[in-house]
UniProtKB/TrEMBL annotation:
Gene3D superfamilies in the record: MFS general substrate transporter like domains
Keyword Cell cycle: no
Organism: Pedobacter duraquae
Name of the protein described by the UniProt record: YQGE family putative transporter
Entry keywords, A to Z: Membrane, Transmembrane, Transmembrane helix
């Protein structure tokens, strides 16, 4: 066992300097992700007892993300990428400070905090995706995302329990808001530490300054459809657990415990899958994640009680990392192919991809709001997740087609080099 552990450590050390720095940066920042993803929504729920405000908060986050992706593209022409990456991490702490400073959680205040958090995610994910794409290749991306998922899930064992019971204990003594403020201060310090680690990397900005295009190869639109389907459930994966547990169990301690149950098993499983699987296995990993998420949604809808929430969380602990572990390498393999074919910056595809996610997120959140206002919050929490989960099952066949087409296009590149005129014709499609 010890020899196996040493072997895995040696394998990590054999990776490039930037690979190790990016992984360690994300490891440090991952400590605050459960707080950002779960407990901020729980704070809104505790303070307002209104699930629609949680969804409004999430919608403003989703609005801030694509806008910041666009701004980030322009700023990359002026600032080093690690500066913008660090800014994204620090802004998450700033957003929480804005939320905690509000005397009354009205729609305007929640919306402002949401926009700032959206900007945080925009700077973070735009630059994180580009760096992950730049420092990995198709052969080691399963390992990269398996390693990240392993750390994220291990951290998800400790952080939610510690914070959840700390907040609940503070609430029992009469000052839950002070506990949230203390957690916010810790989050801000950790984001600074993650930024310091990021600056140790030797990261390069995208080479091409053009990043906005309005016409793409037909192959890209297949991935955009997959992005829309991913976006459908993305919002529910962030806010639904907090809303369900606060509604049906009512305590942050239960929220933290539910997040941690089974996480060690999930972490080890994700690392093994990432380490041992090849690009050929991605569709099966993706399909398993889709099935598990659908089962989770059905259990929640049928039971809709404390037991249902716990089971929902257990299935989600496996479904979400499986989906991410397969999705990102599929996305990056498409970008690898099209950057060669269309001679464009990788960031152009990362930016456009965010538009597909945004459409899906709006559709998913819109489904919740329509059900909530037409019927009730309970109906929305019970059935909106089932609706989007069933719709997302079609992602399996979309992803399968993308992988099959990618193999064909890779074969074409191996046997055909574009002429100079063909390259010029592709480059001429650039927009403003």
């Amino acid at each position: 066992m010890l020899n196996k552990l040493k072997s895995e450590i040696t394998h990590f050390k054999d990776q490039t300097h930037n690979f190790k720095i990016l992984t360690l940066t994300n490891l440090i920042y991952s400590i605050v992700l459960p707080v950002i993803d779960i407990f901020v929504a729980a704070y809104v729920m505790r303070s307002s007892n209104d699930p629609t405000k949680v969804v409004v908060y999430q919608l403003t986050i989703y609005t801030g993300i694509p806008i910041t992706f666009l701004i980030n593209g322009w700023l990359l022409n002026k600032f080093p990428i690690k500066v913008l990456y660090s800014l994204g991490m620090v802004l998450s702490g700033v957003s929480m400070m804005i939320m905690m400073s509000l005397k009354t959680l009205d729609i305007t205040g929640v919306g402002i905090a949401g926009i700032v958090m959206g900007m945080s995610f925009g700077f973070y994910w735009a630059n994180r995706d580009f760096l992950a794409l730049a420092i990995t290749n198709d052969k080691n991306r399963n390992y990269y995302y398996g390693l990240e998922t392993f750390f994220y899930t291990i951290i998800a064992v400790v952080i939610p329990v510690m914070i959840g019971w700390f907040i609940e204990f503070s609430a029992n003594t009469g000052d839950a808001k002070l506990a949230y403020k203390i957690v916010t201060g810790i989050v801000f310090v950790i984001t600074i530490l993650a930024s310091i680690m990021c600056f140790k990397g030797k990261f390069n900005n995208p080479t091409s300054k053009k990043f906005i295009y309005f016409k793409f190869d037909p192959y890209w639109y297949r991935l955009m459809f997959l992005a829309v389907l991913k976006g459908l459930v993305q919002g529910f994966l962030v806010t639904a657990p907090a809303m369900l547990i606060m509604l049906l169990l009512g305590k942050e301690g239960a929220l933290g415990t539910a997040q941690s149950v089974g996480a060690i098993f999930a972490a080890i499983l994700m690392y093994i899958i990432g380490r041992k699987t090849t690009p050929e296995h991605r569709i099966y990993v993706f399909g398993a994640g889709l099935v598990l998420f659908t089962i989770a949604a059905l259990i929640n809808g049928v039971l809709f009680n404390g037991t249902g929430v716990i089971l929902f969380m257990l299935f989600l602990l496996l479904a979400k990392p499986l989906l991410d572990l397969a999705y990102f390498p599929i996305q990056f393999s498409v970008i690898d192919i099209l950057t060669k074919k269309e001679k464009r910056s990788e960031f152009a595809y990362i930016l456009n991809h965010e538009a597909g996610l945004y459409i899906g997120r709006l559709s998913g959140a819109g489904t919740f709001l329509i059900l909530a206002y037409t019927f009730s919050n309970e109906i929305a929490l019970r059935y909106a997740i089932i609706i989007v989960a069933v719709l997302q099952l079609s992602s399996y066949w979309v992803a399968k087609g993308i992988i099959r087409k990618g193999k064909i296009m890779n074969g074409e590149f191996a046997n055909h080099t574009p002429t100079e005129n063909q390259i010029d014709a592709k480059v001429a499609e650039a927009a403003i």
